[in-house]
Amino acid sequence: MESSELQRVTHWLIDGVWSSEEPAEMIADFCERLVAAGLPLWRFGIFIRTLHPEIFGRNFIWRQGEEVEIGAVEFDVLDSPQFAQSPLRIVFEQGLEVRGRVDDPDSKRFPIINDMRAEGVTDYIAVPLSFLDGSIHATSWMTRQPGGFSGDDIAAIRAIMAPLARVSEIISLRRTAEMLLDTYVGNRAGARILGGQIRRGHTDTMQAVIWLSDLRGFTALSDRLPAETVVAILNHYFDCQVTAIRGHGGEVLKFMGDGLLAVFPIDEYVGDAAHVCAHVLEAARESRASVEALAFPVGVAVERFRFGVALHVGNILYGNIGGGNRLDFTCIGPAVNLAARLEKITGRLGRTVVASEGFANVCHHGWHELGEFPIAGFAKAQRVYGLAEETPVVMA
């Protein structure tokens, strides 16, 4: 591989890679340019560790003539026999290159090289990808060229690593920011923040269904159980709702102790209020079934749980609120206040799901009027509706 050709690929990495909209496109373009420049590359892999509560990292695999494979690896891979015998373990833990020629007896300690022999691979090298923050990521390079990679090929791979690392780090940092924002503020709010909506007072008016819920008897539960157990219970309890909420188009904005605030945006131009409300009700039913099925062992006993959720539809202010340089991306407004008051009524009435008159009028699915109730902060009493299928339960 001539130095001038390598220089062209380097310049493209620095200046032209941004024309690729997705990482997979960039990787495919990168590999194809290297092959065109003379590198006998048959397979390339890049593994980027992530800052994510569930995912250890993401990998991208390119093969000649095929689409780039994209995968996510969970943390349990670190305890697997496959990882223990992988060249990438040495790269991650020691930051060293690992080479495995199929004709080298020492390479038999790496099962992947034996697997690749069946596909005609003659040479393999894993090279660390070092980011400026000191973190070590990994690349792998394979060839089918008789005799394996030449000395010039290896030199070219090493020379391209620095520009590849800088570009990969920039892409990784942006993705990390997106994932952190998705994890802590939700995907819609995260997109707005990354888009520049970061100043206090940046808010939008949005029509949405508001979901407010909390766990019954949480104060007593917290008093009699160790804090670690309470946290574990809360995590399982929130899992029962978050999966259903996200699965039906909602976004969790906030966890407040045992409380959860979520919104389901309504597109006023499409006029899909009835469709959205139907999805919200289905999410509430799924959450109710999941919480009822939740059985948490504590010593010789098994804890069972109940919760309440209030559903309301209305206009909200959605955006940045806070003081100084500490902001929160949340929603406020009379509609949110009403949902919060209705959620308290669920406990008084022994109901799991209650809805405002506004929600029940949009979502006609077997509601039963529970009466009018004075609501603090509201001039008029509010009609409250419960599901006809539910039997009230009086909490002890």
Automatic annotation (TrEMBL):
PANTHER family xrefs: ADENYLATE CYCLASE, TERMINAL-DIFFERENTIATION SPECIFIC-RELATED (PTHR43081), BLR2264 PROTEIN (PTHR43081:SF11)
Domain (Guanylate cyclase): residue spans on this chain: 209-343
SUPFAM superfamilies found in the cross-reference section: Nucleotide cyclase
GO molecular function, one term: adenylate cyclase activity
PROSITE patterns on file: GUANYLATE_CYCLASE_2
Domain of life: Bacteria
GO biological process: cAMP biosynthetic process; intracellular signal transduction
Full protein name: Adenylate/guanylate cyclase domain-containing protein
Protein source organism: Bradyrhizobium cajani
